[in-house]
Amino acid sequence: MSSLTVFLRVSVRTLTMAALLASCHPPPPQQSGPFQEQRVAGLGNPEIVIVNKAQLVVRLVLSGPESRTIEAQAGATQSERLAPGQYSFEASAPGVQGASGTKAFDVDHRYLWTFDVVEVPQGAQAGGPAAQRAAS
Prior knowledge:
Number of helices: 2
Radius of gyration: 15 Å
């Protein structure tokens, strides 16, 4: 029996959520790393829609023009508004390897950010070919 390592993965698989949240005749969403983003005229400060597909609470720590800690409940979707600008982020959940990075959030943009937990065979890198196969 092979041993498995569990990683927290930032995913962009859920594309239908952005379509449901969009206004009439929006421009098509653009994918930027783990985010799906969409320009929404008149929205103002950036909106982040967090979808937690994991069966764990995901803790998201954002540092940038403002600092914020967000607890995304298991299976829940929530929306947050932030001051525009460059942010670093760290996502974690109990018992899994976290994810981190940086992202610029722009005025008049909505970002769909989906979190999921995947099992990756030991020795495979998160996000690498083996991890992508394990996530399918």
